[in-house]
Amino acid sequence: MRKCLRLTGLLRVEVVEGGKKHVKELFLLTEEFFPYIQPSEELILDRMNSGSVSYFVALFEGKVVGFVDVEFNDSSVFDELHKPVVVEKGVQAKILGLAVKKDFQKKGIGSLLLKKALSFSKEKQASSVVMLVKESNKIAQKLYERFGFSKKGVLQRELDGERVLLFSKSFSN
Questions:
Q1: pLDDT, tens digit, for every residue of 37-46?
Q2: What is the pTM of this model?
Q3: Which of 67, 71, 82, 103 lies deepest, with the highest CB count within 10 Å?
Q4: Would residue 168 count as lying in a domain?
Q5: CATH number of the CATH domain containing 29
Q6: What local confidence, expressed as pLDDT, does residue 85 receive?
Q7: Which bin fits 148, alpha (ψ -120 to 50), beta or left (φ > 0)?
Q8: DSSP string, 31-64
């Protein structure tokens, strides 16, 4: 399924649904950007096969240069994980991760991936999208705010010794 073909600067990048052929590259990116989840190729395959997590990859010349993964659950899961933050009722999308290889950052690829995650979440009739971001990651926070996300709270636990912020975007009118 080919979607979101776009020229970003001089780069021809396309966003496609991630599949088994992308697992190795997804693992390497996850290991680089999210080592605290202790990723493995098996974990990524399990997520793909779960039916509740979807991966989208940004391809440049056939190589994965970025990804976003989105999970769908009812809001009670997020209420439990993010107490005392109150989130909307109904189906929620959670962006588990969004990463772009360092050489490809600041070229619009993160925006392209986030746009895909949001449109996919709307298609799946999510009432809102939530995501976590380290407090020090100001560039990511600005990106999320540009797309209509707002800071909803701070997690009670730290990640890699750092505070983690909860961002949310509602689709309700």
A1: 888 999 999 9
A2: 0.84
A3: 67
A4: no
A5: 3.40.630.30
A6: 44
A7: left
A8: HHH-GGG---HHHHHHHHHTSSEEEEEEEETTEE
Query: Is pLDDT larger for residue 55 or for residue 127?
Result: 55
Domain count within the chain: 1
- HSE (side-chain half, CA atoms, 13 Å) at 51: 0
Q: Is residue 52 within 8 Å of residue 133, measured between CB atoms?
A: no
Residue 169 inside a domain? The answer is: no
- Cα–Cα distance, 9 to 6 (Å, whole number): 9
Q: What's the angle, vertex CA 45, arms to CA 61 and CA 171, rounded to 5?
A: 80
Residue 112 lies in a domain: yes
**Average pLDDT of the segment spanning 76-90:** 47
Neighbours of 43 (CB within 10 A): 15
Is the torsion defined by CA of 63, 49, 98, 1 positive or negative?
positive
High-pLDDT (> 70) share of the chain, %: 83
Instruction: Residue 45: name the closest of 28, 24, 31 by CA.
Output: 24
Q: Let me know if residue 139 belongs to a domain.
A: no
Domain, as residue range, for 15: 2-131
- Predicted confidence at residue 13, as pLDDT, reads 92
